[in-house]
Amino acid sequence: MSRLRLIAAFALVAGLISCGQTPDEQPSGPVLTTAPTTTSTPEEPKRMFEPPYPYGTVQAKAPAVADGMVPVVTHIPTDKPYVFITIDDGAVQHPKARELMINAGVWPSVFLNTKYAEGHKDYFKELPATVHSHTTSHPNLLGKPFEFQKNEICGNADFLTTDYGKRPTLFRPPFGNYDATTRHAAASCGFKALVNWTAAVNDGRVQFQQGDKLKPGDIVLMHFRTTFVEDFTAFLNRAKQDGLTPVPLEDFLG
């Protein structure tokens, strides 16, 4: 082989090696020099709980107001694996609350006092939750005169109607304390039911009034506190462990 032919052969081999190929290799396909013109849409992250029915549709109705007194509801009669989370007061507007609710796919019922919710309308309006009444100043209503109780209950309902554009239908007495006067006052303010609870969450622990697990129809109490993340997470994990799905309380007291 002449000197010129040797030089040409070496040049050919070098060129192929620099392209990542040996003399016997062929390109596997076209090489894209620009990004694709279309992109796939990322999937939404899966929520912890998926709605078992379209939320906002009535599943059951509250017991009727009788003798001028609202019914007292502490448990929802249901044969479905449903549980209900309620959150009281509004004293601490935790910045993680909305994110936690949305990621979990959970729509709580919140019972707000005027003294805590006043001035924080934007915060509570952004929550995926339904707002209900918890009195104006959070007093113990037990044994108080009718006019005192009515002013506390109706005044709070009026405030919430103004701030949130809809009159609340459910009432929870502070500390869970009530008497016949409370039920009369709540009925006179237009409420459908007085709601208490069967389990509570405190300091990241679920506490039961009976037994050692959540049961279908249980109404769970927690609060807007600095421990909101720990408390809400404890409820979610307990519900999942006990095979229950949190659903809106309003749908069963429609």
TrEMBL record:
InterPro entries: Glyco_hydro/deAcase_b/a-brl, NODB_dom, Polysacc_deacetylase_ArnD. Residues 77-193 form the NodB homology domain. The keyword Transcription does not apply. Residues 1-20 form the signal peptide. Residues 22-51 are annotated as: Disordered. Keywords: Signal. It holds the Pfam family Polysacc_deac_1. SUPFAM superfamilies: Glycoside hydrolase/deacetylase. Residues 33-42 have a biased composition (Low complexity). This is Polysaccharide deacetylase family protein. It comes from Lentzea indica.
